[in-house]
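Weekly modeling sync, notes
Attendees: S.R. (lead), two postdocs, one rotation student

Agenda item 3: backlog of single-chain predictions. S.R. asked that every request posted to the team notebook include the full sequence so nobody has to chase files. The rotation student volunteered to paste the first one in as an example of the format we agreed on. Action items at the bottom.

Example entry:
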Amino acid sequence: MPSAPQRLTDRKREAIVQAAVAEFRTAGYEATSMDRIAAAAGVSKRTVYNHFPSKEALFTLMLEHLWESSTASVDVAYRPDQPLDQQLKRLLMQKLEVLADPGFIDLARVALAEIIHSPERAQDIVCRMGEKDSGETAWIRAAIADKRLTKVDADFASHQLQGLVKSFAFWPQVTLGQPPLTAAERKRVAESAVAMFLGCYERRA
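Predicted structure, as returned to the notebook:
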């Protein structure tokens, strides 16, 4: 069990992270400073630097949290005893629910703007993201191994599947400021994506 000083340190670190996320979300990368983050977290600037060496380090952590929140929420393990369309629809509905969160979209917009502005700053974290399987990729790999999907590059097929979803539920919101999809719209996007994906890759008896 962590000691009282360690718990206090952990609470301060979490407060700094949450303050940084809020500042990046509302002010953007360039306008956010370590002074603003310290004030928002209720700690000294020195305390912020004791935990994080730079604003870039905090921004990198924000990108990691953004990635993890989008993948951790998609958790539908492949089931050999259930219809593919039902499983895949549940998986995509989880994904669409994450993408409907305005906070997630705001942070994604900040991250995308900074990646475009300074691609070298985000290169390492993007490479690490690419090394991790998404929930969609893991599900596709399992279905291929069970011989219920045709033999296809799972990463390629996962990108296709995510493209079917994000073209409606991510890119218009991030780049054009469109509102998140309604529940009915999310259902329509998920069902059509499932039909198109399985129409291409499901193995027929």
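Discussion: group reviewed the output briefly. The two ends are 55 Å apart (CA to CA).
Action items: rotation student to repeat for the remaining queue; S.R. to check formatting next week.
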